[in-house]
Design goal:
225 residues; 7 helices; mainly alpha; two-stranded antiparallel ribbon
Length: 225
C-alpha cells in the first residue's frame, strides 16, 4: 500500500511524490502477470495439448515469486515512486499479455512434445537454482556475521547465481514455446538484458566495497561474464 509509516511529513511526500512499499509493488506485478496470461488463455478457448504446459510453467513461476515475496525476501529498502511502480507493472503485465497472445492465439503454432519436455527440464533447473540462491541469501541476511559479499557453493564463481538461474528458467520456457513466437523471444531478450545489467552493477559494487572480494569472480556466468 501507500507508505505513511516512514515518518515523512506532508512536504516531503509532496516533494517525493506518491510512494509505494516495495513489497506491494512486487506483488502487484507478480500477481497481475499470471492473471493476464490466464485470461488470454481463456479468451482463446483454453487450448490444451502442448500449450497447457506453457500455461502451467508460466503460472507456477509467478506463484513461486509471490511466495518468495511473502516468506523469503526481506524489504529493508525505502518505498518506491509510483511512476517506477507503473513502469514495473507495465513491464510484467504487458509482456504477459504479449506472450499469452503469441502462444495461445489460434494462428500460433503448437510446440512439439520434445521442445516442451526440453524446455520444462531447463525451467525446473532454473527455478530450483533460483530458489536455492534466494534461500541462501535469506540465511546470510539472518546471520550475525559481519556484512560481506555473499559466500557459499553457488556464489563462489559468480556474484549473482540467482539471476543466472532466473535466465535459465526463462530460456527453458521460451524453448518450450517452440522458439518461434515473437512475444516470448523478445521477453527473453529483455530479461537477459536487465539481469545482466543488475549482475554487473552488483559485482562492481562488491568489488569496490570489500577489499577481500575475489578478483577472478565473475558477475553472472562462471569464467565468462
Amino acid at each position: 500500500g501507500i507508505n505513511a509509516e516512514y515518518g515523512e511529513n506532508s512536504s516531503e511526500k509532496m516533494a517525493n511524490g506518491i510512494q509505494v512499499h516495495k513489497m506491494a509493488a512486487d506483488l502487484g506485478g507478480y500477481i497481475g502477470a499470471p492473471l493476464v496470461y490466464l485470461a488470454m488463455w481463456h479468451f482463446y478457448g483454453a487450448p490444451l495439448g502442448t500449450k497447457l504446459p506453457l500455461l502451467l510453467l508460466f503460472e507456477l513461476h509467478f506463484v513461486k515469486r509471490v511466495l518468495e515475496v511473502l516468506f523469503v525476501h526481506g524489504y529493508p529498502r525505502p518505498p518506491v515512486a509510483i511512476s517506477d511502480v507503473a513502469m514495473e507493472w507495465t513491464y510484467y503485465i504487458g509482456f504477459a499479455l504479449w506472450c499469452s497472445i503469441s502462444v495461445n492465439s489460434p494462428t500460433s503454432s503448437w510446440p512439439s512434445r520434445t521442445m516442451v519436455k526440453a524446455g520444462a527440464f531447463l525451467w525446473t533447473i532454473g527455478q530450483g537454482g533460483n530458489l536455492a540462491a534466494h534461500l541462501h541469501l535469506r540465511l546470510i541476511g539472518e546471520s550475525n556475521k559481519p556484512r560481506s559479499w555473499p559466500k557459499g557453493p553457488m556464489f563462489n564463481l559468480v556474484a549473482c547465481p540467482h539471476y543466472l538461474f532466473e535466465i535459465i528458467s526463462w530460456v527453458g520456457w521460451t524453448v518450450a514455446t517452440g522458439l518461434d513466437k515473437l512475444g516470448p523471444c523478445v521477453f527473453l531478450v529483455a530479461v537477459i538484458g536487465i539481469l545482466v545489467s543488475y549482475a554487473l552493477e552488483k559485482h562492481q559494487n562488491y568489488d569496490k566495497r570489500y577489499d577481500d572480494y575475489p578478483p577472478n569472480r565473475k558477475a553472472l556466468i562462471p569464467f565468462v561474464l
